[in-house]
Amino acid sequence: NNGYRIDYFYNPELTEISFCIPPELANVIKGKDMSISGIIAEIIDPEWSGVYHAYDNHVTVSYGDTVIGHADQTQKVKHTVIKKTAGGVIDGNTVPYSIVINPSASDLDPASAVLAVTDMLSYTPPAGTVMNASLSSVVIYALSTGDRGEEIRTDITSACSYTMDESAEGGKQTYTVRFKVPDSTSIRIDYEYQFSGKGKVHDLTNVAMVEGGYTGSDKTKNELDIIIQDADSGVVAVGINVHKVDSENYTVTLGGAEFKLEKWTGQSWDIVKNPIDPEHGFVTDETHGMFNTGALENNTAYRLTELKAPPGYEMRTATTYEFYIKSSDSSSIVKPEDFNGKALNNGDNFYITNDAVRYDLPSTGGNGTVHYELIGSMILLFVFLYSLRLKKRQTKHEIKK
């Protein structure tokens, strides 16, 4: 603060940092305490074995060539494989999370080039309410360090994958997300959970785990007490958003899936027309692989039926999904006797997966592959005869010479 400057030098070969205190400052602090703080050492050790590692730290104070003070410290450092942070509630209904995995970019699993990261979010909705969560804004980065020590983030979301499962038991809802990310790479995953409904949640727990061959697994945990406000955040949400995704990778959205939406009238199922295109059914768009149902009646049974799978994907075995929009009052639900639909809120996201078509050759148990083998043999024979003919021509040409 008095205009003095302290230079420092770093020797990467010795992992040594030197501070040079100018004489004029040395005279000022003579007989006083001086502290140098904020030194952070990032340990990058590809050969790290085990969870803990001990490092020695030595500090020497000298004047010219004369050593006037010395201290040693041994620091036991835990190999942090995964670290998780949670932010505060955004816009009344969104909770952001970040996971940092393998910050030292070690080869955690020598048997695989991919790490499996599992993230589990669980909570108990406020009594008498419907509160659903949906994963949004998933971005996966590879982390590296620039020439000046700055963190560089490279978006590798398209090279990774994730899937999501939902379950409910004992009044508690659980969302399990399984990421697949590259090993031997420092990874950061930023994502958000968006909640529908409103009320106070006391036991919102989020646990992230990573599997690796180094010691088995490591995990990190966050616990929050939050209050979810109106999910619309000033925008009136209507209907539900239906998403089509690849069953093995939710980053792959699927356009071209066709659906039929029906409403229970009390006597029968009636077709609900697409408010945007009344002449056709509901089709997932090519940009986001989704569609919105438009406004729906509260406490009324609805049935969504898949009519056509996205191009290149198989139809699901179960093609019908039942649900209703729960109102804030205790009105009874208009539904058939065998109805077992899920309670949703306006604006909820509903994910439906499809398996990609597998193109396999016919079974070798019969004669299904004979045609393929015959064609392949003919191609090989043609190549052989053609090369033989060229060789004969070349020989004749050399004889003429």
Could you please describe the fold and organization of this structure?
This protein has 401 residues and is mostly beta strands. The protein contains two helices and 24 strands. Strands 17, 18, 19, 21, 22 and 23 form a six-stranded mixed sheet that branches. A hairpin with a 4-residue loop joins β17 (258-264) and β18 (269-271). The longest helix is centred in the C-terminal third of the chain and has 31 residues, at 370-400. It is flat.
Ends: how far apart? 93 Å
Number of DSSP helical runs: 2
**Count the strands?**
24
Strand residue percentage: over 45%
Radius of gyration: 32 Å
The level of helicity is: under 10%
Q: What order do the SSEs take from the amino end to the carboxyl end, as H and E?
A: EEHEEEEEEEEEEEEEEEEEEEEEEH
Global mean pLDDT: 82
Structural class, from secondary structure content? mainly beta
Residue stretches low in confidence (pLDDT < 50, at least 5 long) are: 213-217, 231-235, 395-401
What descriptive keywords fit this protein?
2 helices; flat; 5-stranded antiparallel beta sheet; 401 residues; mainly beta
Quickly describe the structure.
Helices cover 9% and strands 45% of the residues. The protein has 401 residues and is mainly beta.
List the helices and strands and how they pair.
Layout (H helix, E strand, L loop, with lengths): L6 E5 L4 E5 L2 H6 L23 E12 L2 E13 L3 E5 L7 E8 L12 E10 L9 E13 L5 E5 L5 E9 L2 E11 L3 E10 L3 E14 L3 E13 L12 E6 L2 E5 L4 E7 L4 E3 L10 E2 L6 E3 L9 E7 L11 E6 L16 E3 L4 E6 L15 H31 L1
